[in-house]
Amino acid sequence: MTKPLSIAIAGCGIAGLSAAILLNRQGHRVTVFDQFARPLPVGSGLVIQPVGQAVLAELGVLEAALAQGAQITRMVGYVSGGNGTALDARYDAGGKGRFGLALHRSVLFGLLLERAIAEGIKITQSARVLGAKTG
Length: 135
Known about the structure:
Layout: E1 6-10, H1 14-25, E2 29-33, E3 45-48, H2 50-59, H3 62-68, E4 70-72, E5 74-78, E6 85-90, E7 100-104, H4 105-118, E8 122-124
Parallel strand pairs: 1-2, 2-8
Antiparallel strand pairs: 3-7, 4-7, 5-6
Helix pairs in contact: 1-4
């Protein structure tokens, strides 16, 4: 491994926490900065695609996410006004057991925050990031 870096991540959301966990596991010193007084999820539900589920497995939270989410095998969306299909995603067309994982953002956020804290990642709250310093 190369020399460990001191890495600052702006934002304690799903992406920031995921990056912090993976970088921490590579031996880097990671601090997550967030402008809020305490970390909170933002947004509503989402669907985790199979490739995203592989990332959740790497992060060590897939099993807990599966227990709290819902597997979906197909999503269909129609053009307003009845003018056809806009989306028809079939997850298991090849018979490989693939599915989308419908999950509320707050559940995923909570799993990642818990994992980051368990791994000793420093989270600095009430910190507004105004710029970057390199070198």
